[in-house]
Amino acid sequence: MKPPFHPLVQRWFAERFQGPTPAQAQGWVSIAAGKSTLIAAPTGSGKTLAAFLWSIDRLIKRALEGGLDEQTSVVYVSPLKALGNQSIQAEVSERQQEIAQTMQLETLNRQLVTVLASLAMKTNDEQLKKILAESGVNLGNAPENAPAKK
Hints:
The protein has helices at 7-16, 22-32, 47-64, 80-83, 86-123, 126-134. It is mostly helical and 150 residues long. It has one domain (7-135). The protein contains six helices and no strands. Helix content is 60%, strand content 0%.
């Protein structure tokens, strides 16, 4: 099962892992179905990442939709042994920071493409138009191409 993660989360995961572990794949099926989920598997099987990645994905989607309130949104219960392990907390924090940086880059990329598209249309720069078109940017929908309002 390929979970319906936001493209940023999917890309982050794909860049770091070959695929989900069995514990993650099975857990994500249950989580995707909206069920309370207990993942019981050996240490190192990806249980923590399975829970946190799904939660981070939901938080990212809510934030992008403007619906992320300043309140507790995720409760994760971990075995006592893992709670004492600072490396897990550091790893989760690092992963959150990496995804946040990726989101910032995506926003910056969209803004840059918008500016370049506008510049290409205003200056009628054919070379820039060609580069943008080869990158998948549709200049036919640019505001500069819209008929003038009367």
